[in-house]
Amino acid sequence: MALNILRSNGDGFRLHPVAPRLTPMFGFALLTVSCALASFAFACATPFAAFAVVAAAMLPLRPALLVVTGAWLVNQTIGFSALHYPIDGSSIAWGFVIGAAALLATAAASGVLRMLPQGRTPLMLAIALFAAYAAYELALLAATPFLGGEGAFTAAIVTRIGLTSAAWLAGLVAVCEVVRLFDPFGRKGAMSA
Questions:
Q1: If you compute the radius of gyration of the chain from its CA atoms, what whole number of angstroms results?
Q2: How deeply is 126 buried, as exposed, middle or buried, from its count of CB atoms within 10 A (0-12, 13-18, 19+)?
Q3: How far apart (Å, rounded) are the C-alpha atoms in residues 51 and 29?
Q4: Has this prediction a pTM greater than 0.85?
Q5: What is the rounded distance in angstroms from the CA atom of residue 89 to the CA atom of residue 161?
């Protein structure tokens, strides 16, 4: 019964914490709340690659992109209002680059998850995280010639943020498993109807 949430139902998606009709709203709520927590805890190091993998594992690409966009908007709202990011051209531009990188990470995770076989799903989520994180970091790195910030791409920083993303992915999958087990939204009843 371990990680039954990761079992494929033949639809290509790997996370099934709630009934399919509730998945977009659940994904949006899960990632926006998680993003709010991460934004306060990590500010600029929000684990968007982990969020991208969770969204891609729950939803088709278009809704996954919308859910990640919602999480990014929460991150930017908290950053500019509560954390007092400077309101200047560079900060605003970096905000948009981070958003674009998060969407690219979502597309990468979605593509990888659709190409991989359905078996051994925890491994598949790890591979998707690797692809999403690589896409995310490369998109951010590509902006440094125009916006600066090359110093944020040391091996130590990139590794720390990657490990943080892996921990967040594990935590988000655990939350999905708890929701599936407790079935607060009546998934089991809806499945038998």
A1: 17
A2: middle
A3: 12
A4: yes
A5: 25
Q: Around 124, how many Cα atoms within 13 Å sit in the side-chain half-sphere?
A: 22
Count Cβ atoms within 10 A of the Cβ of residue 44 and give its class: 0-12 exposed, 13-18 middle, 19 or more buried: middle
Q: Are 12 and 113 in contact (CB under 8 A)?
A: yes
**Which range is least confidently modeled, 3-17, 48-62, 130-144?**
3-17
List, for residues 30-81, the tens digit of each pLDDT value: 999 998 888 777 666 789 999 999 999 999 999 999 999 999 999 999 989 9
What own/partner pairs with CB < 8 Å and gap ≥ 24 does 139-146 have? 139/97, 139/100, 139/101, 139/104, 139/105, 140/97, 140/98, 140/101, 143/93, 143/94, 143/97, 146/93
DSSP state of 31: H
Residues of 51-81 as b/e, b for ≥16 C-beta within 10 angstroms? bbbbbbbbbeeeebbbbbbbbbebbbebbee
Torsion angle, alpha carbons of 28, 192, 179, 35, to 10: -10
Confidence of residue 3 (pLDDT cuts 50, 70, 90): very low
